[in-house]
Amino acid sequence: MNSRMDSFHFRFEALGSGCEVVIGSGSKKNAQSIAGCAIEEVSRIECKYSRYRTDSLVSRINAAAGHDWVECDEETLSLFQYADTLYESSGGLFDITAGVLRHAWDFGNAVVPGQDVLSRQCSLINWQSVERQGNSVRLPVAGMEFDFGGFGKEYAADRAAALVYRKGVRNGYVNLAGDIRVLGPKLDETPWLIGIQDPRHKSRTIASIPLFTGALATSGDYERYFEVDGHRYCHIIHPRSGYPVTYWRSVTVVAPLAITAGSCSTIAMLKEADGLAFLEDSGMGYLAVDHLGEMYCRNTSSGF
Amino acid sequence: MRSGSTTKSTVFGTVLLTAALALPSVEFAYADAVPERSIVSFKYLNYQDNQGLLSQSGSNTNGLNTTSGASSAVTPGTSGSTSSGSQDRIGVNAYSVMALVPVAGEWSVGTTYTSDSVSGASPTYHSSGLAKMTDLRRAIDVELTRYFSRGSVSVGTSYSKEIDYISRGFNIQGSMSTEDKNTTFTLGGSFNNDSINPVIQPSVDEKKQVASGLIGVTRVLTPQDIVQLNVSYSKGTGYYSDPYKLYDNRPRHRNSVTALARWNHHFDDNGTDGTVHLSYRYYSDSFGIRAHTLDAEYVQPLYKGWTVIPLLRLYAQNEADFYVSVGAAENADPTQPTPPPSDAVYYSEDQRLSGFGAVTLGVKVSKQINKDWLVDVKYEHYEQREQWSLSGDGDPGLTPFKARSIQVGVSRAF
C-alpha cells in the first residue's frame, strides 16, 4: 500500500437515485477529475437511453413505432444483442418491450388495472417481432416501446468503472443506486464490505459480503410499490400475466460484471418460485429473500 | 462429480456473461485478482460469521442455506460443457469466466452496524432525478477516507439548500478495531453552519452554527451478544427560535449531551431462536430539558409459521426552562393565546418543549397460513401525559393524548 494514497468518495444524483464513486488516488484533484469523467459517462448513458427523456434515442425509436426505421450506432446495436441473449436465457421473461405495462400500472394512484387493460398492453410485448436490419431497428406496431431500464443502470456502472480503471485507478468502486461494480479492494488490500438492504426496513441491512473485485446488484419488491387489501404490487411486472411478481422480496447476485449481476437478479425475480433453481443454475453467488422472509444464499465460486 | 444441472449452469452463466462481455468496453483486466486475497477474505470471514449469528431479527437465520458445494459453481472450461451446441464458444468463454470470477468472501447474514456501501433495489424506471442532472457537479459531496491496518479515518464536506435554509457541513470520523476485531472504537466530530431566511419573515436573516463530537464503542461479547455505547456532545450558537410561531424567542445557545446504549441478544442456546433488541438513550441540554428513552423489542418465531413481536417504548422529559404553560384564559378559550410573562427574556409555547411522558405498547402477531397466505395483526397503544414528565408535573393545560391503532394485513402470494 502506498501510504500517500487516499480514498475519495464522491456522491452524486443520477438515474433518479443516490450514487457514489470511490477512488483511491494520490491527489484529490486527480480523483476529482476521474470521478467527473465517470459521472459524465453515467449521465451520457442516461441521456441516450432513458425513456423519460423525450430527446433520448430510445424515445425516438419508440415514437417511430409502427412507422419508420431508426438507424442506431454500434453501442445501441450491441445492447440490442445483449437484450436478445437476455430474452433467450430467461425463456422470454426478460423482454425489453415489456415497459408498456408501466402505462397500465399507476403507482402514484395505487390502482389495480382491469384485465382488459392488461391484456391490451401485454399484446404489445414481443421482442421477437422487433425488426432489425443492418444498423437499423423498427418496432412493428404503434404503441410498442423499448425500455432499457432493466439493465441500463448496470451497464452504466460497468462503463463508468471501466473508464475509471483505464485512468489507472485500482482501488475503489462505482455504486449506482445499489448496483455496485468494484474496481479493486481498499488501499490496505482489505475488501469493501457491502451491506444488503433489508427489504422491509429501509435503514437496516440483513446481510453483508466482503468484495475485492467483481460486482453485485439487487432487485426487490420494495422501492416502488403500492398495497391494496394487504396485497403488494411492486414495479417488477411479469410480461405474460401483466401482474407484478410476488415471490421474492429481494434478490442480490454477485457476478463479475454489474450487468450480469443485475440481469440474473431480475430474471430470478421474474421466475418467481423457479428463481432459486435459476440462481443455482446461473453459477453466480446470490442472496435471496422470499415472500415469507426466508433467506437463501450461495457464495461465489472461489475454486481457483 | 458434477451433476447435470451444474454443467448446464456453467453453460448458462457463461452465456449471459459472454453476451455482456461483447458490450463496448465493459470488461477490464482482472490481472490483480490474485488468489491470496481469497485467503485473506476467508480469514476475515470467520469474524463476520460470528457477528452474523447475532443481532438478528428473528426470521433471518431460518432457512439460511450456506451451500458448501459452491466451489463447483462457475467452474472453468476443463469440464464437459457439452450440453450446448456451441461447444467452442462456451469453452473459450468459460476460460474468461474463470479469469473474471469476482473475488468475494462469504455472505454474513444478520444486521451489522457497519458497511462500506449498501446495495438495494431501485426502480427500473425513474423520473425524479432527471432535473438534477445539470447540477451534477455542484451536488457532489466529497468524503476522503484513509485506511490503516485496523481502522480508518474519514473526512467529509456537505452542502444542502432549501428555499429558506442553507446548510454547510464538515465531518470527521475515525474508527479503530482490536486485533480480534471484536471491539471497535469510534470517534467523530462535525461542524454545521446554517443560514436561515424564512419566507414569511424576510427580515429574519439568521445563522446557526453547531459543533458536535461523538465517542463510541461496539463490542461483540459472544456470538449471541453485541453491545454498543455512544456518547455525543453538541454545542450550538445562533437562531433556535421558530419563526413560524407567535410567541417564540429561544436562547441563542444550545448545548446537549446524548448517551445511547444498545444491546442485541439472540437466544440460540435455549432453542427459542428469539432475539431481543434493547436500547436506552439519555438526553440533556442547556434549555433545561432532560429526557430518557427506553426501547425494547422481542422477536419470537414460533411453531407453524407464527411470529410474535411484543414492543415497548417509554419516554419522559421535563420542560424547558423558558416554556410557557397554557394560561387560564387560554384554558377557558383555546383561541386566546397565552402571552409570555412580561419579564421573560426567553419564551416558547412549543409543546415539544413542555414536560411530558409517553408509553407505547404494542404487539405484532403474524401467521403464515400456508405457502400463499400471510396474515398479520399489529396493535399499538400510545399514551402521552404531562403527569408522566420527569418532574412529575408538566403543563396541566395540555390534554392527555391517547392513540390506539390496529392494523390487520392479509397478503396472498400467487
Overview of the structural elements:
The complex is a heterodimer of chains A (304) and B (414). With 304 residues, chain A is α+β, with helices and mostly antiparallel strands. Chain A is 30% helix and 29% strand. Among the domains of chain A are: 57-146, ApbE-like superfamily (T-fold), CATH 1.10.3980.10; 191-304, ApbE-like domains (T-fold, Roll), CATH 3.10.520. In chain A, strand 6 and strand 7 (179-184) form a beta hairpin. The mean pLDDT of chain A is 89. Chain B has 414 residues and is mainly β. Helices cover 14% and strands 42% of the residues of chain B. Chain B has helices at 4-21, 35-53, 87-100, 328-332, and strands at residues 108-109, 117-119, 141-148, 151-162, 165-177, 183-196, 206-222, 225-238, 248-249, 253-266, 275-285, 290-301, 306-317, 347-348, 356-368, 373-385, 401-412. In chain B, strand 4 (151-162) and strand 5 form a beta hairpin. Chain B is globular. The two termini of chain B are 36 Å apart. Chains A and B meet through strand 1, strand 2, helix 1, helix 3 and helix 5 of A and helix 1, helix 2, helix 3, strand 1 and strand 2 of B. Strand 9 (201-211) of chain A pairs antiparallel with strand 1 of chain B, so a sheet runs across the interface.
Short description:
With 304 residues, chain A is α+β, with helices and mostly antiparallel strands.
> What is the H/E string of chain B?
HHHEEEEEEEEEEEEEHEEEE
Tell me roughly what share of residues is in helical segments of chain B: 10-25%
Largest interface: A-B, 134 and 110 residues
> What top-tier CATH class of the domain at 191-304 in chain A fits best?
Alpha Beta
What fraction, in percent, of the residue positions of chain A are helical?
25-40%
The backbone outline of chain A, from C-alpha atoms, is globular
Q: What would the CATH topology of the largest domain in chain B be?
A: Maltoporin, Chain A
